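FAQ: What does a multi-protein file look like?

Like this. Sequence, then tokens, then the next protein.
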Amino acid sequence: LTLAGGADDAEAVVQGHSPKTAWPRLAEACLAIRRGVPWLATNLDATLPTERGELPGNGSMVAALRTATGAEPEVAGKPGPSLLAEAIRRTAATTPLMVGDRLDSDIAAAHAAGIPSLLVLTGVSDAHDVLTAPADHRPDFLAPDLRALFVDSAELRPGAQPDWQVTSADGELLLAGTGDPHAALRAMCAVHWATGGGTVRVAAAGDGAAAALEALGLTADVAATAGSSPSVTVDPTPQPGVSR
């Protein structure tokens, strides 16, 4: 492949992430795409995690060209299935597992490819996101980090947990018990997903449950009143200025 000098010489536009992408390069890509050359995007991640917080990812730059051209790229990477299908083909994998930290790319790609997935909570997606995730973004397994690869997979699947009890009524999940917060999250996900998912109010019955919710980051803006359990409303809709 030879890098074209500008839109007039380009036979295709391949768009991947670079922190040095600037307007002149986007402008040439825009002109080439409008001329009708093939447009390929490596991925559609809107943001990427950094030490300073989430910053614009390749998907944000793709969105700029989509808006400017009215065209839609062919996506080679996530959340499309092509990349995973090719990896499975090349490795002749018989029991593939997609491991990722982002629901709308990694886990969505696993759904598209028809393979199981493990979400680790070390990146963009957090407990809030997974609890309220739509059906095609829900992982088969859930863990805090990659050490889970050495754990029996049955322990990582959302479902009933021996140390936790979750009840659902009137749009609220009531968590009771004590123990591993991530096991509590698996229990809450199983109950909430079974009832359709979406916005939910999570309440803690006892100090152990309250501590688990706090560890999971589900206690922001908690409003506790006399005689009631500490609770927080979990809404899948991002608030203005907040990336989810």
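And here is the next protein:
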Amino acid sequence: MIIVDKGKLEAILACIAEGTIFVGADHIIEFVNDRAEIMLNLPKDLVGKDIFACHPGSLSQPLTETLDQFRSGSDDVIRISLAVGDSNLDFSATGVHSEGVYLGALLTIKDVTESVAREEELTSLAGQLRAAQDELSTPVVQIWDQVLALPLIGSIDNKRAQTITEVLLERIVETQSEVVILDITGVHSVDTNVTHHLLKIVSASRMLGAECVITGIGPNIAQTMIHLGVDLDELTTMADMQEGLRYAMDRLKSKK
């Protein structure tokens, strides 16, 4: 067994990048490195003082419970994150034992301010990417005065359908459009949910005074919609986007 003298050990601990505090079995603070003093803005004369005299009374009970837990032989590491001033700090506390004898508790403090800031930045960027993705997944384009086009591509789930409806209704009000061409050529498949979403979009648009023209309904999708009980006669459908645009132009001319 290699024995390191106390002075050398303290010099080693003082070089550790993390804040380090050791409290003996008698609750007396035996070691505080410079890093801990800086991170926690501690006075220089803590060594030799009772740990309970250095904390607010409100912390006495949880501190007692933690130290008692370590004294009972627990090897658990207790972790907590706190904001101290302008810094975000991670605290880790563990009991120190030697041959079954409780020697005290070791507290290490790590400054994670940069990591927290980076995580917040990543969260913000992820939110921006999701917003951009939502915008790209609902490309409502004004292709003519009072005419909007919404080409749908891929699958349509509940979340995307809600986004599509909200964006489309906002654009109808904003542009005072009277015709919306809803092109589903790029929709992978149409099931009960997709059909329900399409009908809701048509109904909501109609309530704002805009007629929905559905284009791009292929034979397979038409058969599926009929099988699901959708009355295609109640919908305005055209073969493709070009036919839908022609219908929109004719409709607007007839109103003049």
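Q: Is there any per-entry metadata?
A: Some entries carry free-text notes. For the entry above: The domain at 6-113 is CATH 3.30.450.20 (Beta-Lactamase).
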